[in-house]
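Hi Y.,

Following your request, here is the sequence exactly as I used it, all 356 residues.
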Amino acid sequence: MKPALCVAVASMIFGVQLAHATCPNDAVFLTLGDQIRGYSLRANGATEPCQVLQGPLTTLMTAGAMVFDKNDSFHVAQFLSNSTVDIFPQNAEGNQAPSRSFMLTMTNDLLSIAVDSHLNDFVMTVRPSEAGVLVARANSSGPLPNPIRIADPNINQYVSVAIDKDDNLLIAGYDIRGAVIIDTLGTSRSITSPPLLRSLTGSKTGLLPGGVGFARNDMTIAVDPRTDELFVYNATTDLTQIQVSVFAANANGDAPPVRTISGPATGITGPSLQGDKIAISADGRLLVAEPNLHILAFAPGARGNVAPSQVIADSTAGPATQGGIAVRSAEGGQHDENECARKRTKGGEWTKAWTN
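Below is the corresponding structure, written out as tokens. Let me know if you'd prefer a different format.
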């Protein structure tokens, strides 16, 4: 890392003075309509963002669901304002244009997004006439009037998508009665006609039923990048029950969760208006987006009515609305704040800090 990046700098972004350095490899990001903000995964308490992407060149208006690909590029789906998915490089900041964009011209109801290891984008649309998952092949750009569409006959209302370590697509939604279904389709075998590999549904799952309606987002799924465990944020329509259930890798049928995080001590509240509610870091921490620029972090293995191990609270002015969340973290562990902060052992090797 260049020495200049080890020194905090200040930038003026549309009248908001933010002192920051380049975000470390391990960081969590919020989408907030016309902007994206990033924070170190080591942060706890009041903190300034270490990366802010905002301005007319970004084309961000209603940035919602976001995910990082294997190259750490941002893939950002805009909800309702247009039909665009924007891709930004890892170090994108300030008033920077996307490196490429593609447009799903038949719909603008883009609620969730996932990217596989081949850099194919899987974008969920909830518009009734086109509901399903639209696939944009790697390096797509410009208008895509006829993308591949994956429809799941078991699901009446689509809500969230994720990709597992084997490049298979998980689709979460509700059946016609409002019961939760999470299907895994074999997109590692075929994108155009993926077979059904697993279907998680039933009373033993403990997943909360929801009312069937247009553009619901009271459920988010995320896969642990290391263990392939499935995390499900789930809330009832009236928000009287809210939980995060964790299922074993490849859970199938009417399988119970291995643990559930729920209760007043957690501080977890209702779903975001747009974008995903939860994300999982490479060391197994659960990250939860909350209003007023707050992020709750739960240690690996957390269960029950437990308080978060970290609360990241943006100390600068910004939107109070709750946005989507995505995490960028190195496989195998949490890096130090930046490479300048690494320490040598007596044997001369670099060490890495883990934060739970």
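The radius of gyration is 19 Å.

Thanks again,
Q.
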